[in-house]
Amino acid sequence: MSLQTFYDTGNSQNGTPGTGKSVLGKELAARTGLNYVNIGDLAKEHDFYEDWDEERECHVLDEERVLDELEDQMSAGGNVVDYHGCELFPERWFDIVFVTRTNNTVLYDRLKNRGYSDKKVQENVQCEIFQTLLEEARESYKVEIVHELQSNTPQDMEANLNDIIQWLVQWKNDHS
Residue 80 — φ and ψ, nearest 5°? Predict the structure, then answer.
């Protein structure tokens, strides 16, 4: 049976930039037929920005417009949502939340290779050290649906994909 024929679930991929959440989300969607939704790409496509943050060197997301745009799609289910944070999303949208985590040295190298400024690299590595996004997820959703995934190597990525797909199959069996 093809996975895309029966999932109504929604899941969220969160994590510090450079932890592998986009690679994981895209591959998960490709293997399961779930819809991949990258919030950064959605915001760019529709210009869902309020402002530019000079200090952080990034756009400020217009959260209300993003939520309005996604409401119908998320209500229908079957989505993998990719964004660095999760506190803006309603709890009802997700059955499970995965937070990707990466060793600080690996993360530093990934961000430098992307051309991030020293300041932006430092901010993101500190975010990872202090588990900022993991704690945000635990505060925003029921603790039992928040799962931490290590994402340092291609082997970690494959193991994470297999674990998530196994969870999806179990979720389907439990909700049939």
Answer: -115, 115
Q: Which of 34, 41, 32, 142 is nearest to 84 (CA)?
A: 41
Rounded Cα–Cα distance for residues 100 and 20 (Å) = 7
Pick from 17, 21, 54, 43: which is nearest to 132 by CA?
Answer: 17
Residue type present at position 147: H
Q: Which residues pair with 13 in a beta bridge?
A: 82, 98
Q: How far apart are CA 131 and CA 17, in angstroms?
A: 13
SS3 98: strand
Distance CA 130, CA 127 (A): 5
DSSP letter assigned to residue 87: T
Q: What is the pLDDT of residues 59-70, one digit of tens each?
A: 999 999 999 999
Q: Which residues, at least 6 apart from 13, have a Cβ–Cβ distance to it below 8 Å? A: 21, 22, 24, 25, 28, 80, 81, 82, 83, 98, 100
pLDDT at 97 over 50: yes
- Whole-prediction pTM value? 0.91
Distance CA 169, CA 14 (A): 21
Copy the structure tokens of residue 78: 């079957």
